[in-house]
Amino acid sequence: MIVQIEGNVKFPITLDPTVWIFDDRKKTFSEIFEGEENETDHLEEDELKRRSTRFDREVYQQKINPPVNKSINRYEKQRILKGTFLMPLKPFLHTSEPLKDVKKATLVTHEGEEIVDADVLAESLLHFSEDGKPLQEQGPVHLYFKDGSNRSNPIKGIKKIVLQ
Ligand SMILES: Nc1nc2c(c(=O)[nH]1)N[C@H]1C(S)=C(S)[C@@H](COP(=O)(O)O)O[C@H]1N2
Ligand SMILES: [Mo]
Fold it and tell me: 3-35+82-163: which CATH topology?
């Protein structure tokens, strides 16, 4: 369940998408592709309370175990259990310090390899969570281009991102 960033970088790194669910940089699919604002921003306190009560009841009834820790508020738990989440790749690429002449990247997947422009890669998003769980189908991540052009056909089953 990990993804390597390697190749023409100063610091090869290992991504662990299972911890991103706690990361505030994550975005929902709707925020990225449907121009929706952050879902939590505009809710009144009452609505937040109502939702979290309902959430607790549902969790209790369905005996689901939310994969979140106690420091996360109830509303965030509910959001996590219902949402489709993506993480911008850029901060992680940045950490790996790609060399200046990097122009392309090879995405090594379970099915084969795909080559993308480094510029396009830097703006891409990694889908990593669905309904509070890691991806069941061809995980651990699916790659979406920022312009939405592969929205109905993301690159799935990525094991390695090799910069060239
Ligand atoms: N409106 C909307 N469309 C969406 C999503 C979403 O969360 N909202 N998720 C996308 C993602 S990340 C994937 S992998 C596919 C899943 O499609 P499926 O449920 O048909 O397998 O739908 C895509 N389309
Ligand atoms: Mo996806």
Answer: Sulfite Oxidase; Chain A, domain 2 (3.90.420)
| Ligand 1 atom 10 nearest Cα | 29
CB 164 within 8 A of CB 103: yes
For ligand 1, atom 24, the nearest C-alpha belongs to 152
Q: What is the pTM of this model?
A: 0.82
Task: Give the pocket of ligand 1 (CB within 6 Å).
Answer: 29, 84, 127, 142
**Best CA proximity match to 104, nearest among 2, 13, 7, 4:** 7
User: For the chain, what are the domain ranges?
Assistant: 3-35+82-163, 39-77
Count the Cβ atoms, other than its own, within 10 Å of residue 164.
Answer: 14
Ligand 1 pocket check: which of 29, 142, 143 to mutate, most ligand atoms within 8 Å of Cβ? 29
CA 79 to ligand 1 centroid distance, Å: 16
Instruction: List, run by run, the mean pLDDT of 10-residue segments along the chain (164 residues).
Output: 97 95 91 81 64 62 47 82 96 96 98 97 98 94 97 97 98
